[in-house]
UniProtKB/TrEMBL annotation:
This is SsuA/THI5-like domain-containing protein. Signal peptide: none annotated. SUPFAM superfamilies: Periplasmic binding protein-like II. GO terms for cellular component: periplasmic space. The keyword DNA damage does not apply. Pfam families: NMT1_2 (PF13379). Belongs to the bacterial solute-binding protein SsuA/TauA family. It is found in: Periplasm.
Length: 331
């Protein structure tokens, strides 16, 4: 009887000790809401971080929402509907130029080139940029990075997008692909996997890469309000560390392995297409291998914006870019 009492007492004591510890661990889990500007294989490292449990390892519970468009994503961030935005760096410049007293800070790079491709309605065996002259071109939203890079590349090849093309810019971001599929335009600028899917379905053909043509750019970065970095610095550091782990994983694994890891985020795309797109992005260096947004890319970004006539003012690198967090987690 005494032996039974001792065993029972021991079990009760263990339970008393374990329950508070479990509760304590649960309390330490921090919720983070991410708003991504679109769902794209271009953001493969983010999905790897989710699937491989890198956020969980940092004690973070991540809720991912696709906010469809840079303006909508930034509105969600500024209204506190999300904590972190994955969107083009140009949006932080627009917010700053409007006189925000809580500027949006770029703290972790995810991609370092443009992620769009030029798609032709007809198959072209020997494409040249000259073939765009006089064509109906379904472009991206005015003032967004895809459109600005598109215009930058066109001008690089001696094409005035507003004089030499019949340029369509009034289609909402989410409706550009459906508009092309339904017959609008002879050429269109599309993200993956849509570009490859269209090619497989015979709706269009990839003829050029805007990423290869435009060079290094902080095309899509994780950003948050300056106040959030001050108030939740440790959380932002944990988030960045998880992203860095994912970037390293993507850099050291094959397209096949990456495709297998992220396939759950692209239910309507077959695994072969995902693998092909990942390989394409890897080959052109689109995935950043670390979260540091470099100054060269930042200046190139503003050159592209200026060329498009969309840069409200040049902003110093240190004003809207925080590299301390990224450098810290890389140590």
């Amino acid at each position: 009887m005494k032996k039974w009492l001792k065993v029972s007492f021991s079990l009760v004591l263990i339970a008393i000790l374990i329950i508070p510890l479990a509760a304590c661990g649960k309390d330490k889990v921090q919720n983070i809401r991410i708003g991504e500007v679109t769902r794209s294989i271009f953001y493969a490292p983010q999905y790897v971080a989710l699937e491989k449990g890198f956020f969980e390892e940092e004690g973070l519970n991540v809720e991912l929402t696709t906010t469809a468009g840079g303006d909508k994503t930034m509105t969600a961030l500024l209204s506190d509907s999300i904590d972190i935005a994955l969107v083009g760096s140009e949006t932080s410049i627009y917010v700053y130029a409007q006189g925000s007293n809580d500027p949006v800070i770029n703290f972790a790079a995810l991609t370092q080139t443009d992620g769009t491709f030029l798609v032709s309605r007809e198959k072209i065996d020997n494409f040249s940029w000259e073939q765009l002259k006089g064509a109906i071109f379904l472009g991206q939203r005015k003032g967004g990075m895809p459109q600005m890079v598109g215009e930058f590349v066109l001008k690089k090849h001696g094409i005035d997008p507003h004089q030499d093309l019949d340029l369509i810019q009034n289609v909402d971001f989410a409706n550009i692909a459906p508009a092309f599929a339904s017959g609008t335009g002879e050429f269109v600028q599309l993200f993956e996997p849509t570009a490859s899917v269209f090619e497989q379905e015979g709706k269009g053909y990839i003829v050029a890469s805007f990423g290869e043509e435009s060079g290094n750019l902080p095309y899509t970065t994780f950003m948050t309000k300056e106040s959030t970095i001050k108030e939740k610095k440790e959380t932002v550091e944990k988030f960045t560390r998880a992203i860095y782990k994912a970037q390293q994983w993507v850099d050291t694994h094959s397209a096949e392995e990456i495709a297998d890891a992220i396939k759950g985020y692209f239910d309507n795309t077959n695994i072969e297409t995902i693998e092909m797109v990942v390989e394409r992005y890897k080959n052109q260096g689109s995935f950043a291998t670390n979260p540091i947004l470099n100054e060269e890319g930042w200046n190139n970004l503003q050159d592209v914006m200026e060329e498009a006539g969309e840069l409200p003012e040049r902003i110093d690198y240190e004003t809207l870019v925080n590299t301390k967090i990224a450098k810290g987690v890389m140590k």
